[in-house]
């Protein structure tokens, strides 16, 4: 019973960190206590270079020199090389990737970890995009030994909650939303967002959501409740609401909170994601908010990671503009009309973009651009 209460406390800290960066270190320390580890770290690995580009440490690991790790040791770590290739949702640990004999001879383990009293780890993969991987790792001492089945199971139960909290954090961060003005910040989002309580009662909706409701194409509000015309979407929403009230730790919670909503018009179904808000949000919002419902229209919402694409190929602003237009399905003629220029001008710019991206056909360009979409 005490272990279950401790798990719930850690989960609450995880979701609280989505709205308040100051709660991230306590969340990491809570995970360390739950796992009986020395401490827990969170790092993001650049897949192209195979090196960590960011690391955050709980207070229990405050003696670790993060700058030294990023500058040198992360680049020679056998862990990083393996973890950067693992899909999100997996759990990893030392004896999957390296033996104790190899640890005894390895520079990273001996020169970086040993002086800190660290040796083993158990990690959960929480992020996997075209360019980056994200990992939370519980660091263990030689005396604590390898992670056991109970530790691996606990990390596996924590993973969906960390992933959902990070999903919410990144969405709000991308929109420039500050934690002390969440409701106002919802207007900055590029997609419909609706704040609901545990029963599905709508507490607040941004203008993009209001536009979705006014269209009457499968998603509406009746008696202040979010309603779907598609039966499968109704069941999906009910399952998502039930998961908000259910005991934490269900490994499939994140799957139960994503569903499609078919539209009477026959247009592409809405993509719906229900993301829990932490308990402290009731104070922040001055209302019993339980979750934010994101409603995305895939035919209108573009999620091309323009920054990553520009950085990868050193694109100019004009070339990036062409890429965005092609990504949303505009033809050369349509783009020329929008810009008020000749079709030949746009076609010349398109050919220059394709040459820079090393593709010969427009279909190949579209396939390449799809690799630079941020995950939903």
Question: What structural keywords apply?
Answer:
single chain, 3 domains, Beta-Lactamase, 5-stranded antiparallel sheet, 376 residues, alpha+beta, Arc Repressor Mutant, subunit A, 18 helices, flat
As residue ranges, the low-confidence spans are 247-252, 280-287
Number of strands: 12
Q: Shape, please?
A: flat
Query: What is the succession of H and E elements?
Result: HHEEHHEHHHEEHHEEHEEHHEEHEHHHHH
CATH architecture of the largest domain: 2-Layer Sandwich
CATH topology value of the largest domain: Beta-Lactamase
Helix amount: 40-55%
How is this structure best described in words?
- This protein has 376 residues and is of the alpha+beta class.
- It has 18 helices and 12 strands.
Blueprint (SSEs and pairs):
Blueprint: H1 2-16, H2 24-35, E1 39-46, E2 51-57, H3 66-76, H4 78-83, E3 91-93, H5 94-97, H6 100-105, H7 107-113, E4 120-128, E5 132-140, H8 149-174, H9 182-185, E6 192-196, E7 202-205, H10 207-215, E8 219-222, E9 225-228, H11 231-245, H12 253-256, E10 258-261, E11 270-276, H13 281-285, E12 291-296, H14 306-313, H15 317-327, H16 332-339, H17 343-356, H18 362-370
Antiparallel strand pairs: 1-2, 1-5, 3-4, 4-5, 6-7, 6-12, 8-9, 10-11, 11-12
Helix pairs in contact: 1-2, 1-8, 15-17, 16-17
In short:
This protein is of the alpha+beta class. Helix content is 46%, strand content 19%.
